[in-house]
Write a structure and sequence with these properties.
By secondary structure, this protein is mainly alpha-helical. The chain has a single domain, classed as Arc Repressor Mutant, subunit A, CATH 1.10.10.10. The chain is 65% helix and 8% strand. The protein has helices spanning 9-37, 41-51, 60-67, 71-83, 105-125, 132-152, and strands spanning 57-59, 87-91, 99-103. The chain has a three-stranded antiparallel sheet. A hairpin with a 7-residue loop joins strand 2 and strand 3 (99-103). Helix 1 crosses helix 5 (105-125) and helix 2 packs across helix 5 (105-125). The protein is globular and about 55 Å long. 13% of the residues are buried.
Length: 158
């Protein structure tokens, strides 16, 4: 068995800072969006992903992948949005097993109402706290990690 390559001080601080910043930022954004708009950050994310498509629809499996959710996790999340009329489930006409999530007109209005508050919160807690140079460095680093993760998930263990 290979001996562990322990993290040095910089590596450990970087890792812990990423975890802490992500956790605190997501919690703060969720709390403030709930307070201002009575909408969870998770529900907001569903509406955003649907709104970014041409027809406001995504196949359920694609939406789950974009949200990094299991199919059952997405089903539970959509149940709430469907019951409030913000999203509709639509059967796939060419595949009986497939279905889509569709943003309803009420969902689009709700998203448009919540977006200004959310963007202001993102600015206040994230964007405005960093310089343009820091933002550019951060996006370069995180995109590298994200692209490597996609590459490695398809490699079979030896």
């Amino acid at each position: 068995m290979q001996e562990a390559r322990w993290l040095d001080e910089l590596e450990s601080r970087s890792w812990r800072a990423l975890l802490g910043a992500h956790s605190r930022l997501m919690s703060r954004l969720d709390t403030e969006l709930q307070s201002a708009q009575q909408m969870s950050l998770a529900d907001y994310g569903v509406l955003v992903h649907l709104s970014e498509t041409e027809d406001g629809m995504l196949r359920m499996s694609d939406l789950a992948e974009r949200l990094l959710l299991s199919p059952s996790g997405l089903t539970r999340r959509l149940d709430r949005l469907v019951s409030t009329g913000l999203v509709a489930r639509v059967r796939c006409p060419t595949d009986r097993r497939g279905s889509y999530a569709r943003l309803t007109p009420a969902g689009r209005r709700r998203l448009q109402g919540a977006a200004p508050d959310h963007v202001e919160q993102v600015r206040m807690h994230f964007v405005d706290r960093l310089s343009r140079h820091q933002l550019a460095s951060l996006v370069d680093a995180l995109e590298k990690i994200a692209s490597d993760e996609v590459h490695h998930q398809y490699l079979k263990p030896k």
